[in-house]
Amino acid sequence: MHRILFVVLSFVLILTFSCGNTSTAIDRPNVILIIIDTLRADHLNCYGYHRDTSPSLDSLAASGTRWENCQAQAPWTLPATATIFTGLNAKQHGTGRRLDGDHRLHSEIPIIPTIFSNAGYRTCGIFNVVLLNENHGFARGFDYYSCDDLGARRAAISVDEFLRWLESGSDERPFLAVLHFFDVHDPYDPPPPFDKLYFPDDTLDVSMWEITESGQIAHPEHLEHFLSRYDGGITWVDTQLGRLFSELRFRGYGDNTIIMVTADHGEEFLEWGWVGHGGHLYQELVHVPLIVSGPGIPSGEVITEPAAQFDILPTLLSICSIEDTSYFEGVDLFNRAARDPRPLPASRLMFWGQMLGETPLAAVVYGRMKGLVTRKGSTDSYYMFDLLNDPHEQAPLEADSTLMELLDYYRATPMLWDPPRVQDLDSSSTRALEDLGYI
Ligand SMILES: [Zn+2]
What we know:
This protein is of the alpha/beta class. It is built from 11 helices and 18 strands. It has a single domain (27-435), classed as Alkaline Phosphatase, subunit A (3-Layer(aba) Sandwich). The protein has helices spanning 2-22, 55-63, 77-86, 90-93, 112-118, 155-168, 223-250, 283-286, 312-319, 401-411, 427-435; strands at residues 30-36, 65-71, 96-98, 101-103, 122-127, 144-147, 175-181, 257-262, 268-269, 275-276, 287-293, 301-303, 307-308, 344-346, 359-366, 369-376, 379-386, 397-398. The strands form 4 sheets. Strands 1, 2, 5, 6, 7, 8, 11, 12 and 13 form a 9-stranded mixed β-sheet that branches. Strands 14-15-16-17-18 form a 5-stranded antiparallel β-sheet, covered by helices on one side. It has a two-stranded antiparallel ribbon with strand order 3-4. It is globular and about 60 Å long. The structure holds zinc ion.
C-alpha cells in the first residue's frame, strides 16, 4: 500500500515538476527591442513617407503588427527612454531635467532588463549616447552592457557587437537585447552613399544647423540638405537592421525571437520655426513608430487606435507570459479592451529650450483628439487638435472640458519615484552633452 502511494506521489511530483518546467524561461521567446533615436514615424515608408527610406522595417511591419499612432511621452531622450524602460509616464518616473540638473532612473524602479533578468532571461544592452549610460541608471539589470557616450558608434558596429554577444552565450536561457541606435540623431552624417542618397547633387557639406548668437536658424534654406541627410541616416540604419534580421534567420533565431522597433522621439525641421527636438510637444516630436514581429504576433496587421511608449513594457511581458506585479501606466496592446480610448500624455521634463513664444507644458492624446496646454508669462492656454482631420496641428480648436480636465489631471500626477540627480558627470560626458546640444 505504502509502495503504491509512493509511486503515485512520485508520479504526481514528476508531473508537477514537468508542468512547472513548461512555464519556465526556457520556453519563452527571445526579445530584441530596437530603439532608433530621433526617428519620427512619418519618415518611414510604411508610415506613408514618400521616400523609400525603410525597406527592412517595412517588411518587418508586413510580417507583424504595426501601430499607426504611437505617442512618445516626452520629446527628448532621457525621459522618453525612461518611459520605455518603466512603463510609466514621464511625471510618474520623474527621470529628466529639473532646475538642479538631470535626474537619473531611480535605482530601485523596476525596468525592462531587471524584470526580464528576474524572469530568467540573459540580457544585453547596447546604447549610444551619454544620456543612457550607467551614470543615468540604464545599465542596471543587463548581464552585458555597453554605451558609447559620444554617440559616434555606427549602427554596423553595434549590430556586430550584439551578434558577437549572441554567439558568446552557451546556456539555454532566452535572451533580451535592447539595441539603441544613434545614427539618425544629429549630426546628420550618414556614411556614403547614404549621405547623398536622396540628394545626389548636394554640394553642401555641413551636418549641424547653424544657430546665430541671437538664437536664430542661420540658414533655413538648408532644409532640403538636412532632410535628405536625415532620411539617408534612416536608410543607413535600416540597411543594418536588414543585415541583423538576415543574420538572426541564418543563425536559427528566426522562429523564436520577438523583434520590436520604436523610437524615443522624433525630430522637427522648421515646421514650427525650429529644428531638433526637446522644445515642444507637436506630433513631429511625439509621433513615433511601433512595430512588433515574431512568433504568435498577428501578421500584416495595422492598428489605428492610439498607443503609447508606456505600453511597450507591459506588452512585451504579455507576449513572453511574464507575470510581474510592478505598476505600469501602460497596457498590453494586444488586449483590445485595454486599448479603448485612454489619455496618452506627454511633457518635456526640462527647463531649457523655450524657443517658442509659448512654453508647452503638457499634451494629452485622447482618441482622435489631442489637447495641449502652453504658458506665456503667467497665463496658461488650452488648445485642441483633431489629429484625424488635422494631423499637422495647423487648426487649433478651443479645448473642450474633457481635454482640459485630462491635461490638468496629468499635470497634477504625483511622482511615484523621486530619482536622484545625476552625480559627478566627468568632463568627457559633459563635453558629449554639449556637443549634442543637450547643455
Ligand atoms: Zn533621443
